[in-house]
Amino acid sequence: MRHLALILLFVFAASAQVPDGITTTVSRTINITPDEADFVVGVSTTLDTTQDQVTQIFHDAGIQNLTVTSVAAGFNGATIYDPSTGVSQPIGASQLFYQIAFTTAPAALAGYTKKLDAMRASLPGALASLQYNAALNASQAAVDAAHQTALPQLLQDARSKAQALATAAGLKLGGITGVTETNYGAVNVVSSPQFVVISGVAGSFSSPGTTASTQYTFYATVRFAVQ
Fold this sequence. Notes:
Blueprint: H1 2-15, E1 22-32, E2 36-45, H2 51-60, E3 66-75, E4 79-82, E5 87-90, E6 93-104, H3 109-121, E7 127-137, H4 140-169, E8 173-191, E9 202-205, E10 214-226
Parallel strand pairs: 8-9
Antiparallel strand pairs: 1-10, 2-6, 2-7, 3-6, 4-5, 7-8, 8-10
């Protein structure tokens, strides 16, 4: 009889567990003040212009701490037909294209756009063209700090939501058994009028010198044990 009671107790305890528990997904949106302005500049040059010469042109204009990358060679539009393949091939490269990237503080954004506008208006040295775009962004350190603020709030939101579900189902909410996270950022962008390129997800537009914010939404999927 005692063995039967123990078996029945074990069966009852096992039947009171819900193996999958309760899973909830919650989110928190935080506005982060951008702490960096990222510039990408595209220039075309004559074929004999070196990467060092491009770097020096920007240094002379007062733009330091930049990265210069050779992108591609441009062609003058002339082609020659190859009857063996049936394809017309371009001939006579006429320009080189370089990409210049640098990061500065948001407060310096207006000053750098003025420098670039002046360079575009009166192209220096061997530059044949200049275009640029700039994006106000939150640095990884700023995003990490916002994440640390959002995380305990997300867990509390998830527990509140799961508790309401457990109460409605007549269950007792237990501890956390699993957590997954994601985040989604909307980037504020400022651009030169002649060259508007938006990378990533476009947020609110700003013009140089204005105050803006970068919006991040943090998501958490939290699984709770229940009885």
